[in-house]
Amino acid sequence: MIREAYFRLDESSRELSLPYRDAFPCGIEFYDSSGSIGNMITWHWHPFFEINYVTEGEMIYYIDQEEYLMKKGEALFVNESRLHMLSLPPGCARETHYAIKFDKRFFCGNGNNYLEEKYVAPVVNNRGFSAYVIRPDTEAGVQMISHLHRMFHDFIEEPFGYEYDVMGELGHFWTEMMASARTEGLLTEGLHTSDNDKMIPMIQYIADHYREKIILEDIAAAAAVSTRECDRCFSRYIRMSPIEYLNFYRIRRASELLVHTRGSILEIAEECGFHSPSYFSRLFRREFGCNPREFRESMQK
Q1: Whole-number pLDDT of residue 40
Q2: 45: Cβ–Cβ under 8 A, 6 or more apart, which residues?
């Protein structure tokens, strides 16, 4: 079964949506951008692997200081615990995609073993390998996408024994992806440093404390880095200063409360850490092109 997904984050910016059971840690969800607020999925991470396959429109994925414009018929692998964001490109009104989500237990069970060491660890432990693009313009790309199509069919029809078919198709996809990435020099031996490991605790701190008064030193302390390094990480990784991201996060949370609760605009502003209604309204208009009241009314139509 493929279920329609509703994107949700916990208080640490970790994705809550899990389409699989612990007994069979692999599943598929369907995403439609028309169901999201502001045509984007904000910065988040998840402790599992993800393969996104675009079925309509286009989407930009921002991962580890890189931008990937994905079009219909293309796929993107996202490594576990990598901070990323999705946004519609200018001129694209709607995007839909399937997301195959699975964790390493799908390949190697609950314990360390030979398969994990040989096939999973080289991907997970390579901090420079955050994402991999699969396009149908090469023989390898066509083959990998064909595995995805067969998995979609298995999850939709659920014939007897489909779980074994999914395991086989995903196993072939995985090894072919590793082989292609190595050929391209993207999956080299050894560990690579990345701002990702510093960004996650700082993003998590903001998600945990956005209702409170936060200063730059607080955000930097979450990752045990200097304020200068904190500012550099945010500027390089998400192209905002730490305080700009804090306000961005607060505004996004406020937009969700405006849609899903009946709280007054003043109550929502204070709930999201804004104690000046005029400042809140000004930042909100900058993000959404309208004031909070107009936004709420437009979303209720």
Answers
A1: 80
A2: 13, 14, 15, 81, 82, 83, 84, 200, 203
Name the one residue in this structure whose structure tokens are 């730059």: 216
- CATH top-level class for 3-183? mainly beta
Using DSSP bridges, classify how beta strands 96-102 and 26-32 pair: parallel, antiparallel or unpaired: antiparallel
Q: Per-residue pLDDT tens for 8-22?
A: 555 545 554 555 666
Strands (E), the chain: 3-4, 26-32, 40-44, 49-56, 58-63, 66-71, 75-78, 84-87, 96-102, 131-134
Give Cα 237 to chain centroid, integer Å.
14
pTM given for the model:
0.82
Nearby residues of 300 by Cβ (< 8 Å), 6 or more positions away: none
The topology (CATH level 3) of 196-299 is Arc Repressor Mutant, subunit A (1.10.10)
Nearest-angstrom CA–CA distance, 103 and 105:
5
CA atoms within 13 A on the CB side of 14: 14
Nearest one of 149, 140, 188 to 170, comparing CA atoms: 149
